[in-house]
Amino acid sequence: MVRMARLLVALVALIIIVAFAIANRQPVDISFAPFPITLELPLYGAFLFGLAVGVLVGGIGVWLSGLSRRREARRLRSKVWSLENQVKVLKQQEDRAQAERYGAGRESALQAAGD
After folding, report:
1. What is d(CA 87, CA 94) in angstroms, rounded to the nearest whole number?
2. Measured at the alpha carbon of residue 103, what is the angle toward residues 101 and 104, in degrees to the nearest 5?
3. Closest-CA residue to 41 (of 25, 23, 53)
4. I need a labelling partner for 38 at 20 to 30 A (CA). Which of 22, 31, 68, 78 fits?
5. 37-78 residue pLDDT tens
6. Maximum CA extent, the chain
7. What would the DSSP string read from start to end of the chain?
8. Taking a C-beta distance cutoff of 8 angstroms, is the pair 20, 44 a contact?
9. Residue 28 backbone phi and psi in degrees, to 5
10. Quick one: pLDDT at residue 25?
């Protein structure tokens, strides 16, 4: 259901952007204030350029804000891996000790039967 809603919102946004592009084809001058650069783009091009820059800056901001959470997740994954390995070693030690106890119990039973 959520996937269908996202698809519907994306389709509506695409229709709006295409309608905007068709209606605003006149060229506009875009200058980058401190730099001597001037571009002449259609109005929809300037809009799409601003939209792309906004998405890029927003994506970088979200990525940077998630650094601490990703670092913590890596630390916890490492700790879980270490603890799982410790459990594995302890189980192996317990299995060996149990096998030794079983073997020792069997030997004593055989000795008692032989006496």
Report:
1. 10
2. 65
3. 25
4. 22
5. 888 989 888 888 888 999 999 999 999 999 999 999 999 999
6. 110
7. -HHHHHHHHHHHHHHHHHHHHHH--SEEEEEETTTTEEEEEEHHHHHHHHHHHHHHHHHHHHHHHTHHHHHHHHHHHHHHHHHHHHHHHHHHHHHHHHHHHHHHHHHHHHHHHH-
8. yes
9. -130, 150
10. 86
**CA distances for 19 relative to 5, 39, 47, 52, angstroms:** 21, 23, 13, 18
Q: Which residue shows structure tokens 């060996």?
A: 96
What is the residue extent of each domain of the chain? Answer: 1-65, 69-115
At position 21, the amino acid (one-letter code) is A
Q: Residue 37 corresponds to which amino acid?
A: I
Q: Which two tokens stand for residue 37?
A: 């650069």
More confident residue, 98 or 86: 86
* C-alpha distances out from residue 89 to 84, 85, 86, 92, Å: 9, 6, 5, 5
